Amino acid sequence: MLKIRYLFMLIVIICSCNNDNEFSPENLDNILAISVENDNAVSDGVEAIKVIAEFPIDFTTETDGIVDFVVFKDTNETYSQAIELAQENGIQKKRASILVKHNEEASLKVKATISVNGVLISEEVFINFSKAYFNSINITTSSLTITPSSFNEIDLTTELVRNKGVVSLNCIAETVVKDTLWQPRGIFNNYKNKTNSEGKIINKYTLGNDDYQGELFVISTATGINNETKSDTLTIYAQK
Asked: What superkingdom does the record give (predicted)?
C-alpha cells in the first residue's frame, strides 16, 4: 500500500513538471498562429482588416500576456493588446487582435510578438488593401474671377468624393482650363494630378502674360471603377 502511494505521488510530480515545461523555450514551436479577416479591404480609411494572434487554450506567460503588433507603413503603427478568452462557433480560444485601416492601395506587413518565459516569439503576415474609387468629382475655386496679363494666382481644387470614407491616396484627376473656342489658357504653377489624404488636388492657376478676357471653363476629369470616366466643369471669368 505504501509503495502504491509513493508511485502515485511520483506520477503527480512528473505530470506537474511536464505542465511547467510545456511552454519552455524548447517547446515553443507553433505556439503563436497569426491570421487575417477581411483581407483586401477597401483603402478608404474606414474599412478595416482584422489581424489575429491566436494561442493554445491552456497557454500562459510569465508576464501579463501582452502581444505587441507592428504595422509596417511609411510611419509604423504599434499596438499592445492583451490576450483574451473568446468563443467562436462554441469553441473557446485565446487570442489578441487589432484592426488596421489604410488610405492607399498597398500590401502591408504586420508582425506580432510575445515574450514566453524570456523568449520572444514572432509571426508575420501580409495584409492587402484594394483601391478606393470615387463616386463623384467636384471642382471649386478660391475666386470666380482672374486678372488677365497678371501672375496673380487662384486655387483650383478638384475633389474625388466617396459615399463612405475617402478615395485612396494618389488617385489621378486631370484639370484643364479652356476659353470659349476650347483653346487652352493660362498657366498651372507646379501642376498636380494626384489626390492628397483628403481626396483633393489643389492647383495654383494664373493667366500670366495672357490678355484674354471672357469666360473660362475649368474641367476636371478622372477615371473610376470599370474605367468609367467622370468630369466636372466650373466657369470662371477673366476680367480686369
From this structure: Bacteria
Q: Where in the chain is the domain with CATH 2.60.40.1930?
A: 136-238
CATH topology of domain 29-130: Immunoglobulin-like (2.60.40)
Q: What is 136-238's CATH topology?
A: Immunoglobulin-like (2.60.40)
> Pairing relation of β-strands 154-161 and 119-130?
unpaired
- Output the DSSP codes for 69-100: EEE-SSS-EEEEEE-EEEEETTEEEEEEEEEE
Closest by CA to 49, choosing from 123, 122, 106, is 106
Cell of 34: 497569426
3 state DSSP class of 197: coil
C-alpha grid cell, residue 3: 509503495
Secondary structure (3-state) at 126: strand
Contact 134, 160 (CB under 8 A): yes
Question: Over the stretch 77-94, which tens digit does the pLDDT of each residue have?
Answer: 999 999 998 887 888 889
Q: Specify the pLDDT at position 87.
A: 81
